[in-house]
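Why do we care about 3D structure at all? Because function follows from shape, and shape follows, mostly, from sequence. That is the central idea of this module. The next example makes it concrete: a single protein chain, its amino acid sequence, and then its structure expressed as tokens.
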Amino acid sequence: MPIDARTELIFGEIALKRSLVTAEQLERSRALWEDAVQTSKPKRLGEIMMAQGFITKDQALDVLKEAHIRRGDKPRIGGYELQKLLGRGAMGSVYA
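And the structure:
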């Protein structure tokens, strides 16, 4: 699946808003992402942030889900399409 620049920018905004990364870490990650986009093996911004040790895989997946929701995409888990977030707690999220 091709990497969508708009989703990656939204991803960075969410990670910063949630205080998962600092502004400096985001800028460094974006610079590495822009360099990677020019190669034959581009990476997602979240992958770069994980490689730098800024976020965990679970954090990246959660931020990516929110980025897709903000774009208006309906994410899927298994054979289910998530319609809307009903609630979120310390241990997880509940979707319709």
